[in-house]
């Protein structure tokens, strides 16, 4: 029998990760999908951007 997926806690999603973390994840996804950039390169390239978003 296939396992059931847990329903996503939509009401808690904005509270759990900070906005900056969420945006970093989104940037990481888009960077990987479109540019094919690795995690290390991404962190180096986008480090200034991350500090701006979190502040």
Strand runs, count: 0
Strand content: under 5%
Helix content: 55-70%
Mean pLDDT: 55
Give the radius of gyration: 15 Å
The string of secondary-structure elements, in order, is: HH
* C-alpha geometry: flat
Whole-Å distance between the termini?
47 Å
Count helical runs: 2
pLDDT below 50 for ≥5 consecutive residues: which ranges? 12-17
Sheet with the most strands? none
Q: Classify the secondary structure makeup into a structural class.
A: mainly alpha
Topology diagram in text:
Elements: H1 19-35, H2 39-54
Helix pairs in contact: 1-2
Question: Could you walk me through the main structural features you see in this protein, from its secondary elements to its overall organization?
Answer:
With 55 residues, this protein is mostly helical. The protein has a domain at 19-54. 60% of the residues lie in helices and 0% in strands. It contains 2 helices and no strands. The longest helix has 17 residues, at 19-35. It is flat and about 45 Å long. The N and C termini lie far apart (47 Å). Residues 12-17 have low confidence and may be disordered.
Provide a short characterization of the protein structure.
With 55 residues, this protein is mostly helical. The protein has helices at 19-35, 39-54.
